[in-house]
Amino acid sequence: MELASGKEAGAVNVSDDVFGVEFNESLVHQVVNAYMAGARSGTKGQKNRSAVSGGGAKPWAQKGSGRARAGTTRSPVWVGGGRAFPGHNRDFSQKVNKKMYRGAMKSIFSELVRTDRLVVVDDFKVEAPKTKEFVAKLAALDLKDALVITEGFDEYLYLSARNLYHADVCDVASIDPVSLVGFKSIVVTQGAVKQLEEKLG
Predict the structure, then answer these.
(1) N or C: where does the chain have the smaller number of CB atoms within 10 Å of the terminal CB?
(2) How far is CA 73 from the centre of its chain?
(3) CB 145 within 8 A of CB 185
């Protein structure tokens, strides 16, 4: 794999177990769908008569008023009462075991290498939290739409990239399959490559 550093290029050795596996489209599709499904809130729901507030006192006496019997003001037939058959919060998450997740991530990284979308750099830092400096670093690599993966959280990088819709920054611990598939190019530091090999190998 080539190592890019501004206008210079070299070579870096990577593990074939992580960056050289066969692309498994169905597995990647399943893991990406599961990740996106897990991001859904599923908070659409209503309250039944026991969940709404109030209704603790009996509205009127059981007998003698001439009105129908009523034990609570939170019955479904009352205004302000609970729903008779309310909808409940829904969990959209899908089960993906660790072996499937690691296999999908290795498949994605291997495909990024084959399609020349993965760029390995020696280091990627900015001297100050300035978007202009971050864009200049990407321009030096002839990139614009890119995800930068570092070995650890870098506050300056995060602040420099958070205002860009076509670029993002994350560390190895927070990478996700949707971002890897969505960005045109992935920039990875050498330290992050070693962590990825340890994490996915």
Answers:
(1) C
(2) 44
(3) yes
Amino acid letter, 45:
G
How far is it, in rounded angstroms, from Cα 25 to Cα 127?
A: 40
**pLDDT, tens digit, 9 for 90 and up, residues 105-155:** 999 999 999 999 999 999 999 999 999 999 999 999 999 899 999 998 989
The amino acid at 139: A
CA 73, CA 69: separation in Å to the nearest integer? 11
Long-range contacts, 153-157 (Cβ 8 Å, 24+): 154/125, 155/129, 156/125, 156/126, 156/127, 156/128, 156/129, 157/124, 157/125, 157/126
pLDDT digits (tens, 9 = 90+) for 15-45: 888 899 999 999 999 999 999 999 998 888 8
